[in-house]
Amino acid sequence: MKVPVEPLDPRQVHAWQQMSPEEKWQVALGLLETATEIRLMALRRDHPEWTEAQVEAELAAERIRAAA
User: Fold this and answer.
1) Is the predicted pLDDT of residue 2 greater than 90, yes or no?
2) Fewer Cβ close by (within 10 Å): the C or N end of the chain?
3) pLDDT of residue 4
4) Using CA atoms, how far apart are residues 40 and 56, in angstroms rounded to an integer?
5) Distance CA 43, CA 46 (A)
6) Rounded distance, CA 57 to CA 60, Å?
7) What percent of the chain has pLDDT over 70?
8) Rounded to two decimals, what is the model's pTM?
9) Residues whose CB is less than 8 angstroms from the CB of residue 14 and which lie 6 or more positions away in sequence, other chains included
10) pLDDT by residue (tens digit) across 39-59?
């Protein structure tokens, strides 16, 4: 499934161009943290019987499968 990508607003492009590599890295880490929390919430919702360790193990397994 191909997800449509909206073009960036010129203000977004300008803001990104003005950021240092460290600032860009911090943005990327924040996005990863947000995506991780959303996925953890979905796993907890879909599998309320799982322990927290099982939820975290599934997230780790998903990441390994995605990297393969």
Assistant:
1) no
2) N
3) 87
4) 7
5) 5
6) 5
7) 100
8) 0.77
9) none
10) 999 999 999 999 999 999 999
Place of tokens 């959303």: 38
Please report, for residues 21, 37, 38, 64, 66, the alpha-carbon distance to residue 50 in angstroms, rounded to integers and kept in the order given.
39, 16, 17, 20, 22
- If 0-12 CB within 10 Å is exposed, 13-18 middle and 19+ buried, where does residue 39 land? middle
- Helical residues (DSSP H) of 1-68, grouped into ranges: 10-18, 21-46, 52-67
CA distances from 66 to 41, 59, 61 (A): 19, 11, 9
Closest CA to 45 of 34, 35, 60, 55: 55
From residue 5, how far is each of 2, 8, 28 by CA, in Å?
Answer: 9, 9, 18
